[in-house]
Amino acid sequence: MSLDRQNLDSFQLLRRIVLSILTIFVLYKLIFSLIGTIDRPQIQGKFELYQTNLVLVASEWEPTAELEGLGALQTSIIGTDFLKAASQQYESARANDVQAIDKLKLSLSNLATGSIDRDNKQSLAEPLGTRITLQTNLINKTISSAQLEIDKIDLRIGILQAASKQPEQAIKTWQKVGAISGQSRSKNIAASLIEIWKQPSEIDRNTAPQIAAEINTNFDGWFRDRVQAQLYTDLGDKTALASLLQGEQIAAQNALIKLGLNTVPRILIGLSGVGLIVFFIVRFIILLLQRQASQSISDVLLANINTPWKSPWDWEIVWQVFMLGFFFVGQFLLPFVFGTFISPGSLTMRGQGIYVFASYVLMSSLTIGVLYLSIKSYLPLPLDWFKFNWKSNWLLWGIGGYLVATPIVIVVSILNEKIWQGQGGSNPLLQIVLEGKDSSALLLFFLTAAVAAPLFEEFLFRGFLLPSLTRYVPVWAAICLSGLLFGVAHLSLSEIIPLTTLGIILGIVYARTKNLLAPMLLHSLWNSTTLVSLYILGSGN
User: Fold this and answer.
1) What CA–CA distances, in Å, run from 25 to 120, 123, 497?
2) What phi, psi does 41 have (nearest 5°)?
3) By C-alpha distance, which of 306, 310, 356, 352 is closest to 474?
4) What letter does residue 495 receive in the DSSP assignment?
5) Which of 78, 266, 369, 396 holds its CA 20 to 30 A away from the CA of 190?
6) Which positions ≥6 away from 376 have C-beta within 8 Å?
7) Which residues contact 91 (CB under 8 A, 6 or more apart)?
8) What angle do CA 155, 156, 158 make, to 5 degrees?
9) Among candidates 530, 535, 360, which has minimal Cα distance to 442?
10) Cα separation, 269 vs 406, whole angstroms
11) Alpha-carbon distance 212 to 354, whole Å?
C-alpha cells in the first residue's frame, strides 16, 4: 500500500515537472507570437478598402425611370460624399503603411547595433553574421513591398482627386510618386496618368493601346474605369467611351446589390440587438421601481447563471488539458510536424483550404483525446456537464445572444481600433477568404470557421474550462477568465479585447442555459456572418 502511494506520488511529481516545462515553452511561444503581431496590419484595414472600392463602383449607377425609386436606397448605402470618404480611407491606409515602414527601419537600426531577433527561426548554430544578413534581407524585402503598396495607394489617391475635379492636385500627387518612388513600374504609371489628365493631352492613337494595357494591368474596378474614361475622352473615342459606360452600369448595379446584401442585414442585426438590450434595461428599471428587480431579472434573464458546476477534478487537470492538449499540440507539435513536410505558403488556394481544415480537425481531435484521457477516471460526470439538450430553448438563446453580441462587440471593436490604429494583426484565415476565388477552398474555410471551430472551441472553453473554474471562483469570474483565455488563444493582440467580449457573452449564454448547443449556435452565426461579409466584399472587388 505504501509502495503504491509512493509510486503515485512519484508519478504526480513527474507529471508536474513535465507540465511545468511545457508551460514555460508555451508561455514563451505565446508571448512572442502575440508580440509578433504588434506590427502586423489588421484585416479591418483591407476590409474597409474593399468596401470603399465597392462603394465607388456602386456610385456610378444611374437608375432608369422604372428603378428611379431605388436612387434613395443607393444614396443611403453609399452616402453623398463618397469621394471624400474614399480619400480618407486611402489616406488612413497610407499612414498605416508609413508607420509600418518606420518600425521596420527601426528594426534595421537595432540589427546594425547588434540587437538580434530572439524569435528568429534560423538555426542557432548559424554564424552571427549570417543571421544578421538573413534578417536584414528579409526586412529590406518587407520594406520594399510596403513601399510598393504606398505607391499604389498614392496613384489611387490621385485618381480620387482627379474625380473630385482637382486635376492639378492629382498631377502633383503623381509627380511626387515619380520623384520619390524607387519602383520603375510606379514611375511609369504615374507618368501615364499625368499624360492622360494633362490639358491639352498629347496622347495619340499610336501610344494609346500601350497605355490602356498598362491601366488594365495595374488598376481594377472604379479606378480603372475612371482612367479609361479620361483616356477615351482625350482620344475622342466616343464608341469606346459609350461601351465603357454601359459596362459600368452593369458593374455598378451588381456592386449596389452586394453592398445591400452586406450592409442591410448587418444594420438589421445591430438594431435588433440594440432593441433587445434596451428592452431588458427598460424592464429592469420598471421592475426595480416595483421593487421586484432582483427576483424577476433572475427568473427571466439570469436564472441559474450563478449556479456553479460541481467539478470532480482540480486545477491540475485543467492545466494538463490546456498545456498538453491545446497549446502544446496546437502551437508546437502540429506546426512542427506539418512544417517538416508542408510549406503552407507554397500551396494553392485549394491546398490551403485542405491544409487549414485538416490541421484544425486533427488539432481538435487530439486535444479532445487528451481531455478524455485526463477526465476518464472521473466518469460518469454529473448531468450538467457537456450537456446537449435539443428540446430546450437553445435556439432562442443562441440567436438572441448573437443579436445582443453584435452591437456590443462592434462598439468594443471601434474603441479597440483607437488603441491599435490598424496594427496588432488578425486571423490570417480572414485575409485568405477576403482574397479567395476558389469555391472549393472557400467551402473548406467556411466548414473550418463556421462548423469545426464553434463545436471544438465551445466544447473546450465553455464546456470544460468555464465549469472547471467555478470550483475556485464565482461563476461571473469563471465567465470572464474563460473569455479572456479564449481571446488570448487566437494569438492576435488587436483581437484580444473584442474576442474576450464575445467570449464573455458566450459564457453568459452557456451559464444561463447549461446547454452547449446555445453558445455553439451563437459562435457559428458570428463566424458565418463574418465570412459571408468577407466573401461578398472579395467577390465585389
Assistant:
1) 15, 17, 24
2) -70, 150
3) 306
4) G
5) 78
6) none
7) 157
8) 70
9) 535
10) 7
11) 39
From the CB of residue 429, how many other CB atoms can be counted at a distance below 10 Å? 21
Q: Contact, 43 vs 538, CB < 8 A?
A: no
**What amino acid occupies position 160?**
L
- Cα 128 to Cα 18, 36, 104, 223, 428, distances in angstroms: 32, 22, 20, 47, 31
Whether omega for the bond prior to residue 380 falls within 30 degrees of 0, making it cis, is yes
DSSP state of 41: B
What span, in angstroms and rounded, lies between the C-alpha atoms of 186 and 178? 7
| CA angle 427–437–491, rounded 5-degree value | 5
Extents of the domains making up the chain: 81-236, 260-286+389-541
8 Å CB contact between 452 and 537: no
Alpha carbon distance 320, 18 (integer Å): 10
Give the residue among 349, 294, 238, 258 at the shortest CA–CA distance from 53: 258
Asked if 225 and 252 touch (Cβ cutoff 8 Å), the reply is no
User: CA 439 to CA 1: how far, in whole Å?
Assistant: 63
Burial 17-38 (b: 16+ CB within 10 A, else e): eebeebbeebeebbeeebeebe
Report d(CA 26, CA 492) in Å as an integer.
15
Angle value at C-alpha 250, between 436 and 440, nearest 5 degrees = 20
Q: Helix (H, G, I), strand (E, B), or coil: what is residue 264?
A: helix
For the chain, 541 residues long, give each residue's pLDDT as a single digit of tens: 455 666 666 777 887 888 888 888 888 888 877 777 776 767 777 778 888 888 888 888 887 766 666 667 777 777 778 888 899 889 888 888 888 787 777 777 776 665 544 444 444 444 555 666 767 777 777 778 888 888 899 999 999 999 999 989 999 999 998 888 778 888 889 988 998 888 887 777 777 788 888 888 888 889 999 999 998 888 888 898 899 889 888 888 888 888 888 888 888 999 999 999 998 888 777 777 776 555 555 555 566 677 888 889 888 899 999 988 888 887 778 877 877 777 766 777 788 888 888 888 999 999 999 999 989 988 888 888 999 988 888 999 999 999 999 999 999 988 888 887 766 666 777 777 767 677 888 888 899 999 999 999 999 999 999 999 999 999 999 999 999 999 998 888 888 999 999 999 999 999 988 999 999 999 999 999 988 888 888 776 6
The helix (H) or strand (E) run that includes residue 254 is helix 238-289
Closest CA to 500 of 516, 514, 480: 480
